[in-house]
Design goal:
CATH architecture of the largest domain: 3-Layer(aba) Sandwich
Oligomer: single chain
CATH superfamily of the largest domain: HUPs
Bound molecules: flavin-adenine dinucleotide
Helix content: 25-40%
Largest sheet: 9 strands, mixed
Strand order of the largest sheet: 9-8-7-10-6-1-4-5-11
Distance between the termini: 55 Å
Length: about 350
């Protein structure tokens, strides 16, 4: 059991922070911006929880959280944090932290780890969780309403959570955008060494990337797609290697499907799937309108084609004129310099 903290007079919003390398994930600042708006209106306090390895997060890093609305930053430090482990370590810390105290609202990134973590916590606190959130609003009489994605992002719905809290909203990253922040704002920082919980119900033994051929294209953040210019199923074998490295889904044109190089489930376009990844890499694809119909909503499109006049170059953000195979090999080598040339040749031959 860790220290007790008296219940503060003002209700609190707790925000779970996430970092990538030395930077805050943009979703952390988005959550804080949203929390700050609500806190200002409702006269609540914002506390942000950071799970990190000892001394990985500096006081200067915390200033950025203060700039985006945190009143209090709790740095929970342990060598086991930020490893590929399950959520139990995190919810156990949160549950024990304020004995008997709960936030009015808990905000977390809508990612598998945090959705699972807060679901455990809310089950114990008898609270309500909404994942895939886009925005939320507190009515003057104290009801929280949350707008969330439904039907794989095809529709949105608004849920009213009523007055029964604690509420928990998991917000999709990169929806709200990050505001400017106020660099003069200050936050109280509490640094704590957390004990390791040796009674984990779940031990993660191995973490491996999903098979790119199995990634659901409608959910994929990144897609590497190929067309006739890959010249056969072997070309797709190499493309799969690249997709694997990028943890991307494999997509294809109708021609590639009709030729039997990939199954229909991978087809993108008017008579296939309509996708909206953050990154779409098109290899050996001409950019016919029926294909473009299914991928033009991608955030960033990179095209590789040996014909400088290919239509795909008119809509891509970054284009390379050249042969697909050597460019794929060069990309794979750049992503993993330890890859032997023989492995790349074997991959391109489908071995
Ligand atoms: C009713 C209807 C529905 C359709 N629905 C779909 C759909 O859902 N999805 C879909 O994709 N298509 C669909 N099509 C087909 C569509 O019209 C195109 O025929 C198809 O998208 C073209 O596929 P592609 O780009 O692989 O082939 P191509 O148009 O033949 O283009 C191949 C490209 O590869 C390049 N290339 C060749 N060799 C290399 C190399 N070595 N390195 C690099 N680049 C190279 C070429 O320059 C060319 O630009 C539909 C068509 C109809 C009529």
């Amino acid at each position: 059991m860790v220290d007790e903290k008296e219940n503060t007079a003002d209700p609190e919003i707790w925000v779970l922070a996430e970092r990538q390398g030395k930077k805050w994930q943009s979703v952390t600042l988005e959550l804080l911006d949203d929390a700050a708006v609500l806190a200002k209106r409702a006269k609540w306090q914002v506390a942000v929880f950071v799970f990190a390895k000892p001394m990985d997060v500096t006081d200067k890093d915390c200033e950025e959280l203060a700039a985006h609305g945190a009143n209090h930053v709790y740095l929970m430090e342990n060598d086991d944090f930020c490893e590929p482990n399950g959520p139990q370590k995190y919810w156990a810390v949160l549950e024990n932290f304020f004995v008997g105290a709960k936030p009015r609202l808990l905000l977390a990134p809508s990612t598998p780890l945090w959705v699972e973590c807060v679901s455990w916590l809310m089950a114990r606190w008898d609270g309500t969780v909404v994942s895939d959130g886009v925005s939320f609003k507190l009515s003057p009489d104290g009801d929280l309403s949350v707008t969330r994605y439904a039907w794989r992002g095809e529709a949105q719905m608004t849920l009213s959570l009523g007055k029964d809290h604690p509420w928990c909203v998991c917000l999709r990253p990169d929806v709200a955008g990050v505001g400017k922040g106020n660099s003069r704002a200050k936050a109280e920082i509490t640094r704590r060494q957390e004990l390791s919980d040796n009674n984990e119900g779940v031990n993660v033994k191995e973490v491996f990337s999903p098979d790119p051929g199995d990634i659901d294209l409608l959910e994929a953040d990144r897609i590497v797609a190929g067309g006739r210019g890959l010249n056969g199923a072997e070309g797709f074998q190499l493309l799969e290697g690249l997709a694997n490295q990028l943890e991307a889904g494999v997509g294809a044109t109708r021609v590639a499907v009709d030729l039997g190089w990939v199954p229909y489930s991978r087809q993108i376009g008017q008579t296939g799937k309509a996708v909206k990844p953050r990154l779409y890499i098109a290899l050996g694809i001409s950019g016919a309108s029926q294909h473009v119909d299914g991928m033009s909503g991608s955030e960033v499109i990179i095209a590789i084609n040996n014909d400088p006049n290919a239509h795909i170059f008119k809509l891509c953000h970054l284009g390379f004129v050249g042969e697909a195979e050597p460019i794929m090999q060069a990309l794979m080598k750049a992503l993993d310099p330890k890859l032997e040339s023989s492995e790349l040749v074997a991959a391109s031959k489908g071995k």
